[in-house]
Amino acid sequence: MTSIIDATPTQPSTAANPARALVCRGCGAEYPLVAQHACYECFGPLEVGYDQAALARVTRADIEAGPQNLWRYAALLPAGQDPASRVTLDPGLTPLVAAPGLAAELGIRAPLWVKDDSANPTHSFKDRVVSVALTAARGLGFTRFACASTGNLANSVAAHAARAGVPSIVFIPGDLEQGKVVTTAVYGGDLVAIDGSYDDVNRLCSELVETDEFEDTAFVNVNVRPYYAEGSKTLGYEVAEQLGWRIPEQVVIPMASGELLTKIDKAFSELVEIGLVEAPANGWRVFGAQSAGCNPIAAALHAGTDVITPVRPTGIAKSLNIGDPAAGLYALEAVRRTGGWMEYADDDEIRDAIQLLARTTGVFAETAGGVTVAVLRKLVASGKLDPEAETVVYNTGEGLKTIDAVAGQVGPTYRVKPSLRAVRDVGLLG
Amino acid sequence: MTSIIDATPTQPSTAANPARALVCRGCGAEYPLVAQHACYECFGPLEVGYDQAALARVTRADIEAGPQNLWRYAALLPAGQDPASRVTLDPGLTPLVAAPGLAAELGIRAPLWVKDDSANPTHSFKDRVVSVALTAARGLGFTRFACASTGNLANSVAAHAARAGVPSIVFIPGDLEQGKVVTTAVYGGDLVAIDGSYDDVNRLCSELVETDEFEDTAFVNVNVRPYYAEGSKTLGYEVAEQLGWRIPEQVVIPMASGELLTKIDKAFSELVEIGLVEAPANGWRVFGAQSAGCNPIAAALHAGTDVITPVRPTGIAKSLNIGDPAAGLYALEAVRRTGGWMEYADDDEIRDAIQLLARTTGVFAETAGGVTVAVLRKLVASGKLDPEAETVVYNTGEGLKTIDAVAGQVGPTYRVKPSLRAVRDVGLLG
Prior knowledge:
2 copies of one chain form a homodimer.
Chain A: E1 19-24, E2 30-31, E3 46-50, H1 52-56, H2 60-64, E4 96-98, H3 100-106, E5 112-116, H4 126-139, E6 144-148, H5 152-164, E7 168-173, H6 178-185, E8 190-194, H7 198-208, E9 217-219, H8 225-230, H9 234-242, E10 250-254, H10 259-273, E11 285-291, H11 296-303, H12 328-338, E12 342-345, H13 347-361, H14 367-382, E13 391-395, H15 404-407, E14 414-416, H16 420-425
Parallel strand pairs in A: 5-13, 6-7, 6-9, 7-8, 10-11, 10-13, 11-12
Antiparallel strand pairs in A: 1-2, 1-3, 4-5
Helix pairs in contact in A: 4-5, 5-6, 9-10, 10-12, 11-12, 13-14
InterPro entries (chains A, B): Ser/Thr_Dehydratase (IPR050147), Thr_synthase-like (IPR004450), TrpB-like_PALP (IPR001926), TrpB-like_PALP_sf (IPR036052)
Keywords (chains A, B): Lyase, Pyridoxal phosphate
GO molecular function, one term (chains A, B): threonine deaminase activity
């Protein structure tokens, strides 16, 4: 009899790491599996390439016999096949919540689901990418963990490092929500607030990673970024498995760098290629969501161009505020290829959508989730999204982290003295 | 092949409700399974009595074949055997986190675990009791859900009602942390702030429940309290199952009403009685934790009396601030019977313990979790808790809900301009 906490299922046929090389997304040049994120030939971004034969040996039964977290997909990831190697809070297998009430309000007449990744250990999808990145990083010999972050990533790196007993150093923009600052600082690692935007912080980290003082340091979204990005694939695998090994016809995904969207699409493609699922009859369509204060990818789609013009982000959806999105081009490609679309929502629409989601599903999302639900609403209204097709909308973070966004909108409906008379006076008794 | 979200395993031998009657904890009088919480004979509290033969038919295999949430224990609960009957966010099966770093800092030389119930859908253990209470309530014909709450319960009732599409009305003290107010209000039910303490709110609800206007309303912790309380048993069942069907030698549990402690102890006793686990060779010992600002149960234990003197609560551990604890006597009984102890911690000790837990385990607890870890530390220091015996400490809530408690303690370790020179100037580069 197996204990639930025993995360060591036997997966004899899939115990090897299926990753084969780092492959340039631009020119196709290949590199060994080291800590490198850009191509020496064309400066294009690298991503993990797999041994397709190894992937093709993975079965549904292998996965279903695995632990109740993202490591059930270890045979499809570039790290963590050996449970003892994992640097992890064991995120994943978050709820796929049926949302009939939300569907009814929006006029969607097919099944609508919310993939609620606020249920991860530090309450955002970042726990997925961090678990994969830090597991790869420890395997590569790094002894300190770091990141540039808009908040959720900082929480996750600091918590992972605390659990693993490894030093961490986290770089954040100086204007983050207090919730995200405290929730990083409490784990006790170094926390460096930078007087600048996320893009400034990211540039600084790209410089630091080249210094001698940081040669022992894995920056999860810089020098080990190819491994990091692969963690997002699990948000595709899980939805397919939770639907009974089916791919939904439509998915709506928030975009910051654009990478999450491309990796969910990649996950669906992989599942089809290796024969674990069949594609829907008309394929799947990928929709991207941004805020009006930071919409460079959606703006490029609307303008019909591949030129993504960087912006200086504004607005309440801070976890999506990447003004110069590294994977924007690839997100455009995925959306165009699948016949999807992109939209953006302003702050008032985001706040309304947070409340709409909460009162119809019991899921309290952070501003990024508000963006996605607001965009879902717009896509239905404009006819870009088919209300007769099964749809999954991704909530990537927890409302408690961005309480200020709705604190002015909601509160007690009554305030009374503790007596029956007072309760009667406000009309709660006949 | 079964979908993960299909929470309908076949449990043919255990599909019947094992609850038999409501039984007075004072005089033993029995009542049918209705909405009643006090004995008509002696005014003692009622609790659910079971058909022991039905419980004894439950096997480990039945449970292990169940869903990955608390409903795997439905055959040991007074509601929810039929999945379609459940009013639920599917809480439970939260992580049991190994805490070797915390053990080392405290001088504990046996396995130490943190049962992290902040991982529940609304991030506290209250999702457990609310799921059971509201499922029972709907079965009893109630059409509106209500509670008196210090915050976590309010969040949970409002979210459950939103998911189920049922109206809710939640009564809270007027001075709650903003996080808990917003996180209730956002779900869209009625929210009534009462100018008074939790005990005032609770008294008011006891009056309201008797009015005609509220006869359709289940107050989860008043008229359906016996069902509600049983949900806490799952925190005992899960720990035993997650340890590979073993009961730990020592458990440290926060106390508000004292009910959680008594129900975890009851769960262990049931598991032994029905033959699912063996008791540890020397039994298990139950330890209770309160804050210095609200310590009526611990004070009674220290004074060697059964007289629990109500207090007016103060201090930052608001989710534990019940000055007149309904189950205090039974908590005293369990602690004395098992050879445990109770301790209390002041606000500074609570803040320190929140940080200690976070930096050694990656678990960010609300103030109640700080209370429990601070008390664990005191129990080790005083020799009341055996550092050579396996111990589980319960974290019942999420740090994001009580950020203010540590916001003054932690923050960025550095604040710099976005340049290598600035980073060098603060000493991060050699």
